[in-house]
From TrEMBL:
NCBIfam families: PRK02929.1 (NF002795). It comes from Shewanella gaetbuli. Binds 1 Mn(2+) ion per subunit. One of its GO terms (cellular component) is cytosol. Pathway: Carbohydrate degradation; L-arabinose degradation via L-ribulose; D-xylulose 5-phosphate from L-arabinose (bacterial route): step 1/3. Catalyzes the conversion of L-arabinose to L-ribulose. The gene is araA. HAMAP family: Arabinose_Isome. Residues 177-324 form the L-arabinose isomerase central domain. This is L-arabinose isomerase. The lineage of its organism: Bacteria, Pseudomonadati, Pseudomonadota, Gammaproteobacteria, Alteromonadales.
Amino acid sequence: MKQFVQKKVWLITGSQDLYGAKVLEEVARNSQQIVADFNQSSVISVEVLYQPTVKSPREIHAVCQAANQDDDCIGVIMWMHTFSPAKMWIAGLKELTKPFMHLHTQFNAALPWADIDMNYMNTHQSAHGDREFGYIGTRMRKERKVVVGHWQTEPVQAQIDDWCRAAAGWHESQHLKVARFGDNMRQVAVTEGDKVAAQIQFGYEVNAHSLGELVDVIADVSEQDVAHQLELYHQDYHVSSALSHDEYKLKMLKNEARLELAMERFLVAGEYQAFTNCFENLSGLTGLPGLATQRLMSKGYGYGGEGDWKTSAMVRIMKVMAAGREGGTSFMEDYTYNFGVTDQVLGAHMLEVCPSIAAEKPVLDVHLHTIGMRCDVARLLFTGESGPAINVSPIDMGNRFRIIVNEVDAVTPPTDTPHLPVASALWQPRPNLSVAAAAWIYAGGAHHTAYSQALTTENISDYADMAGVELTVIDADTNIRQFKNELRQNAAYYALSQGL
C-alpha cells in the first residue's frame, strides 16, 4: 500500500523519432513495465504515473507544463531510454517548477552477449542518452537528484523513495500554514526570523493569532466532549492512579482535554498544520499546553516552543516525509549533558515531546510547571526509543536560510529518572559530543530541533536541494577545520548565487 495515496510522481521517458515505430513501441512498453514494478514495490511509497514517451520539444514542453498544473503531481522522474537530443529539453526544463529526478538506468540489467546487435545498442542506450540529458541540466543550473543503477534493485528503489518523500515534504511546504498563539519568547534570537523570506523560500505561511481567539473556542468545548477525551487517554496511555481519585488532578487533566480539543478545532478551521505557543504568553489559558501539544504532534501537527515557527514548520514537513516509516518525529531541545566515557545529550523540553518517539507506552500524570506560569499541567512521561536518529535545525542567517543536520545515536538511559517530570531522549552525537557541539555552534544551530528516527540525512538533503537552501551535515566524518572551511565556502557561494 502506498503511503501517499493522493500524491503522484510522473515517469517521463525521453527519446526521438529517429529510431522508427518499433523501437518507440519497445521504449513505451519498457517504461510501462518500470512504472508497474515501481507501483508493486513495497519500497517506493508514492504511486508512479506513466507518461507517454516524449520525442520533440513541443511534447517535452507540454508534459512539463502539465506537471506544473497538476497539484497531485509532486515531482517527475526523467529517464532517457534512447538518445534524446538535449536542446529539445531546454524550453520544458526552463518552465518546470516541480522537483525532478534524473534516473540513470536501462531497462535490461545484463547484456545479451550472444545476440547483441546494433538494433539492441540503439534501443538501449541510456548510458549515452542520459549523459546528453545530464549536460543540459548542468548547463541550465537545474537542481535535481541523480540516481544511478538498475531500476529493479532495492538500493536504487530506496534512493527513489527517499527523493519521493522529500518531494512530498516539499509539496507540503508549499501548502503549509503555521499558527502562532502569542509571540516569540522575549529576548531570544534564534526563534525569530523573516517570515516573508521564509514564505518566498519554502512556501509556507506563518500567521499570528491572539490567545483571546483560542480562549473563545475553549469556552465552546462541552463536558461531554471532555469526558470522551478522558476515555481516549485511558485507552492510549498508562494513566496514573492518582488521576482516578484526586479531584484536583482530574481537573487539571480536564483542562488539557479542553485545550487539545479547542486547539485542534482552531487549527482545522484555519487550515493550519502546525502551531507555536510560548510560556511567556498564556493570558486566558489554564497553563502551558502539555498533553494537548504532545497529542496534537502525535496526530501529525508540527510544533515549536517559545514561538519557534521555523522548527514548527520543519517538524510538520518531516512528519509528512516520514509517513508509514518506523520511528517517530518530534520537537526537541538539547537540554543537558552527561559527560563520561562517552559524552551524551539528554534531550527534552518543558512539556512538549511527541510520544511517537517513545520506547514504551507513555505514562500520563500531572506535575507542577514552574516556568512562565506556576501551575499543575498534565503531560506524558516516557523515554525515547534507542537507535539512529537525526536532529534538524532550520535557521535564518539574515541573507539566506540554512538547514543543519546532526546524525546521532539514541541510547537507553543507564537508570530511571523518577524525579524528572518530562519526556526525554538520550543520544550520542556523531562523531562525538566535542566535535558535534562545536560544529553545531559554528554553524549557528538552534537549541530547538526537529528530531526524527524515521528519516535520514538523505531525506533532508533532497528537501534542501528542492528548497534551494544551504545544508550543513555533522556526521561521523566531520572534522572541525574542514567544517569551518565548508561554512566559509558556502557563505561565498550563496552570496554570489543571489547576485546584487
